[in-house]
Amino acid sequence: MCYNQSSPPIRKDCKDIVIEKLRSKNQVPIHSVKDDCFKTYGRVVTGYDFQPWIQYMEECTQIPREGNTYVASVDQMEQMDITQDVQQMFYGGMPVEVGYCNGRNTTYNGFEYHKGSEINIAVTDFMLVLGHTWDIVNNTYKVEDAEVFFVEKGTAIEMYQTTLHLSPCRVSEEGFMGIVVLPRGTNTPLQNKKNIAEEENILLLQTNKWVLAHPDREPLIRQGAHPGVLGENRELFY
Known about the structure:
four-stranded mixed β-sheet, globular
């Protein structure tokens, strides 16, 4: 536990102190994934021992000096017993991929969604910028509709398939580390995309990956992402 230095002493959770600091530095509300307002985006996942994955991340991966590193599938992590538990019980027997995203991102940049829930596990503290797919209108999404959530180190969350998200945002100079679990094949090169006359088809960028990018996010635009995020490309401060 952390302690407030005021008199009389008031016990405060470390998470609350971090959130208060983030709120003081940003002009948007910062929520916790343990708040009720997270319920339409996902839930906190309990009952699984994710420590083997976390230990692998801490011992075998690094935070890049610039940008983000995303690896969709890590064989060593997928060979662990916890992977079979998650695959059989959480995903009901569906095959999964276990990877990670480490980096230094601080901006909204864009949003993606998948057909199927995603598990994120915070190896370090980080923030997530989240939205709802039902707020997409004519393949555009307004930045001001998004909400920011703090995810405390060691916390695992499920994000529903209707939740818009992208890279975590760091809350310290060191950057962030996070485990990503998805239905197998997600975020891999898309094979044989057909020109079907449905509006959503424009957003399909990779296998099981629909993307709206901010026009300023040049790497995503160059990959073919649809420039559908409207408003300021906001930055989060820490």
